[in-house]
Amino acid sequence: MHHSKYDVIIIGGSFSGLSAAMALGRSMRSVLVIDSGRPCNRQTPATHNVITLDGEKPGNIILAAKKQVLLYDTVFLINDEAKSARQEGPDFVVTTASGQSQKARKLIITSGIKDIMPDIEGFTECWGISILHCPYCHGYEVINKKTGILSIDEMAFDFTKMISHWTKHLTLFTNGKSPLSEKQKEVLKDRNIKVVESELLSIHHEDGYVKTVNFKDDSTLSLEALYTRLPFEQNSGIPEALGCKINDDGYIEIDEFQRTSISGLYAAGDNTTPFRSVSAAMASGNMAGAFVNKELIEEDF
Ligand SMILES: Cc1cc2nc3c(=O)[nH]c(=O)nc-3n(C[C@H](O)[C@H](O)[C@H](O)COP(=O)(O)OP(=O)(O)OC[C@H]3O[C@@H](n4cnc5c(N)ncnc54)[C@H](O)[C@@H]3O)c2cc1C
Question: Looking at the chain, which runs of residues are DSSP E strands?
């Protein structure tokens, strides 16, 4: 890279990070995007619920975005993993897996989250294909299909209620003793929604498309789609190591301008919000880019 110091380093070059990079490139800022190339939706055959991009392969969206962003000659991108970061006066120094150290005045963390897969054989292979995190993204494609919901906590009832809008063939898997109250059980029964407490063993699938679910008690059930919300962790430990406040749900705390609790450090995208969508990630990245630029103008004017 040609810079001894960039205006901005962005860790994570996916929907939120590239959106921030675009706003900054168009503001003539020197930007280094460090991206390890593993967006959370990479296994999904088609992205939905994003206008002008409905049905697109996620990889194609990212490719097009990288191409557009790199047309701005102050924007640089490296395929690398940010390993650590430290503050040096008002600046940030980021060190990557390949051993580079790069400095910038501001840092934006758009590194996303990592879904933690349960120990159920076949689950990972179906993730994003027929095991779904969100009905807005993928519910239309499985309307009225034989659908399961895997939810083991107090969200189980509300999650089931929501998905019942998309399909009438619904079974709730609680993977052990049900967290439902008697009243909730009655409501589900009235609506013909089955509750299965047997523990899941494996998922039989063809190329990621669920066919049957096998339980530890030897029972099986045929299925075409499964919704679940997985536990997650931050992809990068850098925000926490720099002292960013992380909220109880595991998201980086930000204000309405995407500022974290550390001055000069911003965050956007999935690592900051449970509202997980491509358009939301783009919007928050775009906001972060604009407000980082504003902060630089304020400092320099
Ligand atoms: C299976 C699945 C399917 C989905 N389908 C849809 C859909 O159809 N429509 C929709 O609107 N939304 C969908 N979503 C949600 C959407 O994909 C996310 O909201 C969006 O990807 C978030 O963008 P992001 O930039 O915050 O993070 P991500 O897209 O996850 O990207 C994070 C980037 O940061 C990089 N990174 C991480 N750590 C480091 C590091 N230390 N150094 C350098 N780089 C790093 C990663 O490699 C990655 O490129 C889906 C999500 C999942 C999980």
Answer: 6-11, 31-35, 75-79, 82-88, 91-96, 101-109, 113-115, 131-132, 147-150, 170-173, 194-196, 200-206, 209-215, 220-222, 225-228, 232-234, 265-267
